[in-house]
Automatic annotation (TrEMBL):
Protein's UniProt keywords contain Iron: yes
Alphabetized UniProt keyword annotations: 4Fe-4S, Chaperone, Cytoplasm, Heme, Iron, Iron-sulfur, Metal-binding, S-adenosyl-L-methionine
CDD domains per the UniProt record, alphabetical: Radical_SAM (cd01335)
Gene3D superfamilies: tm_1862 like domain
PROSITE patterns: RADICAL_SAM (PS51918)
Biological process annotations from GO: porphyrin-containing compound biosynthetic process
Protein name (Swiss-Prot/TrEMBL): Heme chaperone HemW
SUPFAM superfamilies given in the database record: Radical SAM enzymes (SSF102114)
GO CC, one annotated term: cytoplasm
Annotated family: Belongs to the anaerobic coproporphyrinogen-III oxidase family. HemW subfamily.
Functional note: Probably acts as a heme chaperone, transferring heme to an unknown acceptor. Binds one molecule of heme per monomer, possibly covalently. Binds 1 [4Fe-4S] cluster. The cluster is coordinated with 3 cysteines and an exchangeable S-adenosyl-L-methionine.
Length: 365
């Protein structure tokens, strides 16, 4: 039986953050109800008892704006439409402000067993610039209450290269975050997306330059590893055994099915995306998709994704490219960007930082 991951995109947010261009709209009770009905319809549409689902991921947006009852209905529908493995990893992204002790206990009770909390920073000043609605103290409380509710697989998001951020404020955030009962950290370099409030000179002039960003990234990777969070992907760090199983699907070209406006899929030999349109999603019998790739996971894509992982590219998987890759490696190894043991090729933290150019040179030149 083929395994499958299911991604549910929940397109609601309480307030738009200043840097974000993910697809999300304001939450209303009526829109949330229409959305849930459409999600259930679509899960039934894709129903396939020959697939066993071993990861489910509620992303967004802010999935924690949904009630435990609404999330339970989605999980039940997935269980009756696919075979869900008993130890499936079921993740929900959550905004600290939407979590209470009671809600956390309900979420744990319906089978969500991994939380990904959008903390971003442990500095109130930085959170304010980002336009986040929570404070560092609120985030801390949410994580502690999640652990008390029974969650033993908690991830926090951390953003680096923020306006005015320096090594000291980054170290402060990492120390405070890693003192919490968390097992996983996703650390992203801030990008100024076109059309967001961050897309302006006032913000750009306060961002660390390229060299300072590189220093912050390497500092972050070093500090996290010192604290037991091993880097397993360009932006992801985990204690042993807590690597995200769902996200690893993306980097290993494994099948995942996305449901909801703006969700992406790599499913049954095609990549496709759902339109960024909540109303259209609610009013269509089946979600409207655009096929973005008719034959995904060819050599270039496979190698590119594998090189995002610390595990790297297994040369035995691409025997016809082995010689060419090995020929290009020496200067990358000499400069500290990559390493090999003859069977695998993997990037170092310095290589991850330059991953686009390093991977481009290895795979496309
Ligand atoms: S809560 Fe997350 S998805 Fe929503 S606007 Fe903020 S960053 Fe974007």
């Amino acid at each position: 039986m083929n395994s499958l991951g299911i991604y549910i995109h929940v397109p609601f947010c309480g307030k738009k953050c200043a840097y974000c261009d993910f697809y999300s709209v304001a939450w209303t009770k009526a829109a949330a109800e229409g959305y849930i009905a459409a999600v259930l319809r679509n899960i039934r549409h894709y129903s396939d008892k020959s697939r066993y689902v071993d990861t489910i991921y509620f992303g967004g947006g802010t999935p924690s704006l949904l009630t435990a009852e609404q999330l339970r209905a989605i999980l039940e529908c997935i269980r009756s439409s696919f075979v869900v493995s008993a130890d499936a990893e079921i993740t929900m992204e959550a905004n600290p402000c939407t979590l209470t002790a009671q809600k956390l206990s309900e979420l744990h009770g319906i089978g969500i067993n991994r939380l990904s909390v959008g903390v971003q920073s442990m500095s109130d000043a930085e959170l304010k610039v980002l336009g986040r609605v929570h404070s560092a103290g609120r985030a801390e409380q949410a994580v502690l209450e999640a652990a008390e509710a029974g969650f033993d697989n908690i991830s926090c998001d951390l953003m680096i290269a923020l306006p005015d951020q320096d090594k000291e404020s980054l170290r402060f955030s990492i120390e405070r975050m890693t003192a919490l009962p968390v097992q996983h950290i996703s650390a992203y370099i801030l990008k100024t997306e076109n059309g967001t409030p961050f897309d302006c000179e006032e913000i750009r002039s306060r961002l660390p330059d390229e060299d300072s960003t590189a220093e912050l990234y390497l500092e972050m990777a070093g500090l996290l590893e010192e604290r037991g969070f091993m880097q397993y992907e360009v932006s992801n760090f985990a204690k042993k055994g807590y690597e995200s199983r769902h996200n690893t699907r993306y980097w290993k070209c494994s099948d995942y099915l996305g449901i909801g406006p703006a969700a992406h899929s790599c499913y049954k030999g095609r990549r496709f995306a759902v339109e960024r349109d909540l109303e259209g999603f609610i009013n269509s019998e089946v979600q409207q998709i655009t096929v973005t790739d008719e034959s995904p996971c060819g050599f270039e894509e496979y190698a590119m994704l594998r090189l995002r992982l610390k595990e790297g590219l297994l040369l035995g998987d691409v025997p016809e490219h082995r010689e060419e890759i090995m020929k290009k490696l020496p200067p990358l190894i000499k400069s500290g960007y990559a390493e090999t043991d003859g069977e695998r090729v993997w990037l170092t933290p310095k290589g991850f930082l330059m991953s686009n150019s390093v991977i481009g040179y290895l795979i496309f030149e």
